[in-house]
Each structure stands twice: as C-alpha cells, then as structure tokens.
C-alpha cells in the first residue's frame, strides 16, 4: 500500500514539473504588469510581477559581516564600553570609573546591507543601498539589540557625475581611522562617522589620463528628526540644528599607483585636497535668539608609499593617510567637544582643531598592520572655561560643565590576518587620553566646583569577522 502511494506521488510530481517550469520566466529580465503608468515597476509585489519577490524587480545583492568583539579596558567606560567613548572623554584617574577595569564581549557591530542596481535614467546607472547594524537603542536584555539604520540612499551615476540622496556619511572629514574599534576615531580627529540625511553632487574633471579633480557639494542635516526652529534651552545650552552645506575639492593622481585604504578593503590612488562645512543655528540666549555659525575647514591626503604590483595585490604595499582641520560649533559630528561657550548674553561657537595620521602596511596579501595617532584639541581655553552661573536657568549647565575637554588623543596599533576570503582575525591596542580643564564663573572670576585632570585608558581588542 505504501509503495503504491509513493509511486502515485512521484508520478504526480513528474507530471507537474513541466507546468511549474512554465510559470518561471525563462528570461533573466523581470516581466512587469505595466497597466499602471508612468513607472509600473516602482511597486514590486503590488503592481509588479508577484512571482519575483525574492530576487526583487531589479538586480539585488546582499552583503555585510558578522563581527564578534572582545574588549578589555583598563578603566570602566560604561554600558558602551566595547566602544571608545564618542565624546572623547575618558574617566579621570581619580574617579571610581577610572580605578576599575572592564571586560566585554559583543556581536552588535555586525552589519547587513542590500544593494540595488536599477534601471537607467538619461544615460546614468541608478543604484540604492540600505545598511543596518545592531546598535539601536538597546533593550534591557543583552540578546535583544535593536536594528539601526546606518545608510539608506539612492544615486544616479553618470561617467563623471553622480547625484546621491538619502542618508550617507558626512561630507566633512574624508579620513576614517582604520581601527578595529567601531568608532573609527571620530572624537579624536577623524569626525567622519556620522551618517546624515543629505543631497550630494559629485563631479569628476579629467585633467589628463593620469590626473583628475573630484568636486563634492552636499546639503545635509546633522539632526534628522530635530526641530530646526530655535531649538534648545538655556538650562541645557543646546541649539536648533539647521541644514548645512559641506564640500570637498580633491586632486586624484595615478602617478604613484594604488595602495590599501581602510581595513585593506579598498585600493586608493594618490589624493590630496581640501574640505569644509558651513551652517548657522539659532541659540536661546538670555537676550533672545542669537545666530551662531557652524563652520569647519581642513586638508586631507592619501599617499601610496609602496604601490601594488598589479593594482589588486596587497603584498608589500604601504600607504599613509592624514588630515588636519579647524572647526566651530560642530559637536554634532565630534569635530569639536562642545557646541556653544561664553555667557548667556553672548554665546559663542566652541572652537577646536584636529589632526590625524596613519600608516597601513601589508607585508603579505593576508597580513595587515596599521598604526596611527590622532588628536582633537580645544582652540581657545578661555572661551571654553567661561560659564555664567548668575543667570538662574543656566545653573544646571554650569554644574554639568565645571570641567571642559582640553584635548583627546588616541594612539592605536592593530594587526589583521585573513584566514580565507570570508574570515578575518584582528587584534588591537589603543592608548586613549583626555586632558581636562577647570571652568571659571565669569561673574566672580572664581573656579567652579571640580578639578582639572587627566583620564587615560589602555584598551585591548580582539575581533573575529565573517564577510559575506
């Protein structure tokens, strides 16, 4: 009886195979229901062909990596201790946190992305990317990290012109510190980490077969959901963010060949040029709203010291990357440690500067060694240290701002080895230091409660990655 049943079932399946095959389009190009115009393919699964929901209506690729991190900190950096503090502030040696250590495992730095290559438009290729990680606002349970949008953008790319819209990396500060640490040195002289909503245009100008200029202009908002109309209060000293403009002007040359960049994943040419940002925010002062400018400018360079033999191999290659900048009121991307300083009657933009340099060396194709130094520094200590506590609503601000960050430095060395095309093992040492200054009450010219001092952390990291 069983044999007869399975025989009938097998015959039925064989009979159904031709019919099933007829339902699957033989062409690699999707077929759309174009009863809806002008762009029927805009809504897959609604107006589009519902038999293609997995592969999407366009060319879809997936990727990302699984990342397990172990971090040992010589001081207690809190619940986010797997990361170097985004503020650049290390607990003082005299504090309880500065006298206790920390040992942490986390897999929240894992990432996942979807990339789409869509239909052409006026001779341009169209693309889109959505990337997430698991560093959203954490739930109480360690096994319940929340998904966070990192990037979400679409682009139209011609041969020499590109238009991008959505959330992508800040245009200001091209350098990304090649650390295992997820922060990538953002608060220590490489303020590249923030991903902000923007509209960006990139134009390439070919000077000759070896040299070109790359110009970038972007409109961007540092606070995606903020109120852009005179936000903030006197008690907190915060401000209303507004759309700013940022740009880059880079010379790119093939003269020195190419060498590895960030994490050894890209091969870059000789690049040198300038970048900048300008915006203006409304601050709630004691005398009413006051406009305080946000601005920054800097120089960036990437130099292949030992070039790749064929443009692909990393064996015996070396590169240097560096940048320096000056900025004001740019705490939103960690270019400065603070937003506004001065008094309630005369608030000013907090000013600071940053510098960074790193060397990436690959003695073999699979072994990479990186060493770097970074520093972010306040520019005018007198402005940073002035707090007016005579105006009652600002008392909370004064008490929380008794000390200010003079400087934050980061020295790092890491080694990575690729076991195969997917698995990488990395180890890193960081020495992070914060110098604090003592604030002064402008009315009485006396020091506020609190002390200047130093915070230092020695950090060891081990990471296991699986790229897919």
Brief summary of the model shown:
The protein is mainly beta and 468 residues long.
SSE topology:
Blueprint: H1 2-23, E1 59-73, E2 102-106, E3 111-117, E4 125-133, E5 148-157, E6 161-169, E7 195-206, E8 211-220, E9 239-240, E10 244-260, E11 267-285, E12 288-306, E13 317-328, E14 340-342, E15 347-349, E16 351-362, E17 367-378, H2 381-385, E18 386-387, H3 395-400, E19 403-418, E20 423-438, E21 440-441, E22 446-447, E23 453-467
Parallel strand pairs: 18-21
Antiparallel strand pairs: 1-2, 1-3, 1-23, 3-4, 4-5, 5-6, 6-7, 7-8, 8-10, 9-11, 10-11, 11-12, 12-13, 13-16, 14-15, 16-17, 17-19, 19-20, 20-23, 21-22
Walk me through this protein's architecture.
- The protein is mainly beta.
- It has helices spanning 2-23, 381-385, 395-400; strands at residues 59-73, 102-106, 111-117, 125-133, 148-157, 161-169, 195-206, 211-220, 239-240, 244-260, 267-285, 288-306, 317-328, 340-342, 347-349, 351-362, 367-378, 386-387, 403-418, 423-438, 440-441, 446-447, 453-467.
- A hairpin with a 6-residue loop joins strand 10 (244-260) and strand 11.
- The longest helix has 22 residues, at 2-23.
- The protein is globular, with a radius of gyration of 26 Å.
- The relative contact order is 0.12.
- The model is unreliable at 8-30, 32-54, 227-240 and 391-400 (pLDDT under 50).
